[in-house]
Design goal:
four-stranded antiparallel beta sheet, alpha+beta, 29 helices, cell membrane, 22 strands
Length: 920
């Protein structure tokens, strides 16, 4: 941009727009720009270095991170499209955006920020505004944001790692130490501008890291005004982005991810992260968490630390789960109950009652031979042991994570982050029109609404969330009706089977399996659709509630989304585990849903295999869908963007324009990443008794997920805005709640969904009998004992099978413990049923108490903060007190004089005390 452009812009600033001009929409009557508050471009340009360098040509350095002078570092980039080169239907929009942008940029200069503009080398309509924070401004806002900075190197000896003896092996699993060097540890303290000499400053240019500088720059951008209407002041870059005044706002990557920069002063941290973290060849290496935190901020760092720790702990659970699966697979052929089902002399002679009315036919038990073998893989004694193990594992995971998180809090200077006054969100500050007395400070402060208004907003939010949860339950009910209708349809396909021979079905697909698979797929589709719709609703509700701080905003949104996702993902699993097949009565008096559909029954082996099918489909489908969204979509969008904006080979594209072509970071940031992992954590813990391979699938997914997320944010997205975070926020209590609930759900799955307790009752009560001079413990006869007898003449006309050749069948069997026909209490529950119920309740109570007691002991024994970290925190607080506040203490000591008898003089009958003035 040349001198003519400068003169044109300045003249536009100086000219007076006609009042009442319809083309201008009477802009000057709506917007007031008081000169005493803000300088205009006309007043800034004369003798100002900022304006002289504001419009500069690109210096042809592709990876430059500085202004054209090569000295001032770029801390943020703003991008806008020049309206002068566009055709607007209404000139009012053009003028309003231009004036808001000019006012906003002038506001930034008034706050001490330096700006420089450069035209795009690809699209002449685009202009890039480079933002620089001078040293004095950095010091001011470092104090405002309570940023902790070094005061002294850490002089405490570090404890030697217990794995140091295996360093010749473990070193291959860590990033290359020659590329990513271990940084020096420092004791830190909140920055104070007036005590600058007490901080450990070697070089002012690197004292504040690029992530700190970007965070402070964004803080200013979020609070700089862009318009004043009377007493109402509008401010914040987010509003300007939403209104189209700016196209983008982002901090810069320091170089290309796959090419090391040769520019002076470039740390090449992005390149190092790609080589040692995001590249597929580094999948086996530990994550460079300190470099991740330094480049992307603590919030990104704590997420990857948690994900890595969770994946590491999953490895142990996956090994035990895989062992249980192998045990079940090896014993499926030798299982007594599966042998009896498949035996032609036993299962082949047992005629089962129809599972639907009229069109369903009788069937042989051995037709479910293959399903029975598959069930034995998951429903065995090893699975019960694994469920208890996972209940202990989840406690160890949470307790050890707390310790690891405490170490990271200290190392990353976030120990007292939440204790400090977190600044209010700009959206909150903009709506503050009421006054109230602060109960802590006693000072009147502005708030956006009254107590009644807040209650109204919260009530609207709660009501909306409940409505959507009821909508999910309605969809689950619809899927249940679908299951009943489809099962009826599939079963009717077998009604013409020749019942003279009643040969077993040769197909592996039974009506139960076909119904389960199709219903699971439909349930997954419904889940995905409802997720997309509800996300927008949850964001709208949270914005309407107007939380004060960003932490409050994220916690509120997290709670809403998780409650919805919990019901959405897990409700179908809870239905199969605890509702299906529990209220079916017996063939003579079946239970009907909606007065039309006969309630579903479980397979003779139970509903556990169907629950396993549901879990495997949802977990696999969710992982595939998320990876498509996270990997394929950004890559395709960037590919299209590069194709549409390709330039001639001789043109040099600057760093800020390269980043602009990348994908913008979502406003929700890491929310979706956490939500995805927490939902997976629920599948791994809540229903692990039915699917011991869940930790194996989760481990494989997470190993891929870590590198995918790393590759995505390093190569496909603009640099994420660095943010502080002390911990994983609201996700921590959610994980603890899931861990507590998992004990109850797994105990109830073993008791009510699997066939484990009835087998144990049979084994200890009915199969142990004296045989000669010893006891013969066997499971033989269990299948026969678990099936009750029904007289076919007792069928009602509405449920009697219509198939021919059924006249020779006088009795059939069904899964229950009831007295046979002819008994004086026929079709009522027998004594075996009550034994089994008592055993189930006793098992749940005993297991829960043992596991909860173990969890309590472990949580008490394992301290949340390691002893070494406690020592370092105390040492740091001591140094902060001594170094930063010792000056004031000495000054007070100097000014104070010891009291003597001369200091107190009698006057008449009163004693007068000499006043001592203290000059601080």
């Amino acid at each position: 941009m040349g001198d003519n452009d400068i003169m044109e812009m300045d003249s536009l600033s100086d000219m007076e727009e006609p009042d009442g001009d319809p083309e201008f929409g009477m802009i000057e009557e709506e917007i007031v720009y008081p000169e005493e508050f803000l300088p205009t471009y006309h007043s800034i340009k004369e003798g100002s270095r900022i304006t002289k360098t504001r419009l500069a040509e690109f210096n042809d350095k592709p990876d430059s991170l500085f202004f054209n002078d090569g000295a001032r570092r770029i801390d943020f980039i703003l991008v806008y499209e020049d309206e002068d080169k566009q055709e607007f239907d209404k000139r009012h929009t053009f003028q309003r955006r231009k004036r808001r942008r000019e006012y906003f940029e002038a506001s930034l200069m008034k706050m001490g920020v330096e700006l420089e503009a450069t035209r795009s080398v690809i699209d002449e309509k685009l202009t890039f505004i480079k933002v620089h924070m001078p040293w004095d401004v950095l010091c001011t806002y470092a104090e405002v944001l309570h940023i902790k900075l070094p005061i002294q190197p850490n002089d405490l000896s570090s404890h030697a790692s217990p794995w140091r003896f295996f360093s010749f092996i473990t070193k291959h699993f860590y990033p290359n130490e020659e590329l990513i060097r271990e940084e020096t540890e420092y004791f830190t303290a909140p920055f104070e501008k007036d005590r600058l000499e007490f901080f450990y400053i070697k070089d002012q240019d690197v004292f504040f890291t690029p992530s700190m500088r970007s965070r402070m720059a964004y803080y200013i951008l979020s609070r700089a005004p862009y318009e004043i209407r009377g007493s109402i002041k509008k401010f914040g870059i987010s509003k300007l982005l939403d209104g189209g005044v700016y196209k983008a706002a982002y901090p810069l990557h320091d170089c290309r991810f796959n090419v090391k920069s040769t520019e002076q002063g470039c740390p090449n941290e992005r390149y190092l992260l790609y080589e040692e973290w995001a590249h597929p060849k580094s999948f086996y290496k530990m994550q460079p968490l300190d470099l991740i935190r330094k480049y992307y901020g603590e919030k990104i760092g704590i997420y990857f630390a948690w994900l890595g720790f969770y994946t590491l702990m999953l490895a142990l659970a996956a090994v035990v789960g895989l062992g249980c699966f192998i045990f079940g697979y090896k014993t499926q052929e030798s299982s007594t109950w599966s042998k009896e089902v498949c035996d032609p002399a036993i299962g082949g002679k047992i005629v089962m009652c129809p599972q639907c009315d009229k069109f369903c036919n009788y069937w042989r038990l051995n037709s479910t031979c293959e399903a029975s073998k598959k069930l034995c893989i998951f429903d065995n004694f090893g699975t019960m042991v694994f469920a208890v193990f996972m209940s202990i594992w989840v406690t160890l995971f949470l307790e050890f994570w707390k310790r690891y998180q405490a170490e990271l809090e200290y190392q990353w200077d976030t120990v007292e982050f939440l204790e400090q006054e977190e600044p209010a969100r700009p959206e909150y500050e903009a709506k503050c029109i009421y006054e109230r007395k602060n109960p802590v400070t006693g000072v009147k402060e502005k708030v956006p609404f009254t107590t009644c208004g807040r209650c109204f907003r919260v009530s609207i939010g709660i009501g909306t969330v409940l409505f959507w949860i009821l909508l999910i339950l309605a969809s689950i009910a619809a899927i249940i009706v679908y299951r009943l209708a489809v099962f009826f349809t599939f079963s009717s396909q077998f009604r013409n089977q020749d019942m003279k021979t009643l040969e077993p079905l040769k197909e592996y697909v039974t009506p139960q399996m076909a119904t389960s698979v199709t219903a699971s797929l439909i349930s997954f589709i419904v889940i995905m659709i409802l997720n997309i719709l509800y996300e927008r609703v949850a964001i709208w509700i949270t914005n309407f509630e107007l939380p004060r701080t960003k932490t409050d905003y994220e916690n509120s949104l997290t709670l809403k989304m998780f409650l919805f996702q919990f019901v959405n993902y897990y409700s179908s699993c809870f239905y199969i585990a605890f509702a299906k097949g529990k209220a079916v009565s017996y063939p003579g008096e079946p239970v009907y849903l909606l007065g039309k559909y006969r309630n579903e029954e479980c397979d003779p082996g139970g509903c556990l295999i169907e629950l396993t099918t549901q879990l495997s489909i949802i977990m696999t489908g969710k992982a595939i869908w998320n990876n498509i969204q996270e990997v394929l979509m950004p890559w395709v969008k960037n590919l299209i963007s590069r194709y549409c904006t390709r330039v001639a080979s001789e043109k040099v594209v600057p760093r800020w324009e390269q980043d602009y072509q990348l994908q913008a970071v979502s406003k929700l940031g890491l929310f979706h990443e956490y939500l995805e992992m927490v939902i997976q954590f629920g599948f791994v813990t809540l229903f692990v008794a039915s699917f011991p391979l869940a930790p194996v699938l989760a481990l494989a997914n997470n190993l891929f997920e870590i590198r995918v997320d790393a590759w995505k944010i390093t190569t496909q997205f603009r640099r994420i805005m660095p943010e502080k975070a002390q911990d994983i926020g609201a996700w921590q209590p959610i994980l603890q709640g899931i861990a507590i609930l998992a004990v109850a759900t797994n105990a109830m799955i073993i008791a009510f969904t699997s066939d484990m307790i009835p087998r144990l009752v049979y084994y200890w009560s009915f199969s142990v009998y004296p045989y000669g001079d010893h006891y013969n413990n066997t499971m033989e006869g269990y299948i026969n004992s678990s099936l009750s007898i029904f007289n076919t003449s007792d069928f009602s006309d509405s449920s009697r099978p219509l198939a021919e050749n059924n006249s020779t069948i006088t009795t059939c069997r069904y899964r229950d413990f009831r007295y046979p026909p002819g008994h004086n209490r026929q079709y009522e529950y027998n004594i075996h049923y009550w034994h089994v119920i008592a055993a189930k309740m006793a098992f749940i109570i005993v297991l829960e108490h043992i596991v909860y007691l173990t969890k309590f002991i472990l949580s008490y024994v394992i301290p949340d903060i390691p002893y070494a970290v406690k020592e370092q925190i105390k040492r740091e607080k001591y140094l902060t007190q001594v170094i930063l506040h010792e000056t004031n203490l000495k000054l007070v000591t100097k000014r104070l004089k010891p009291h003597s008898d001369d200091d107190i003089k009698p006057t008449g009958t009163k004693w007068e005390k000499e006043e001592i003035e203290l000059d601080f």
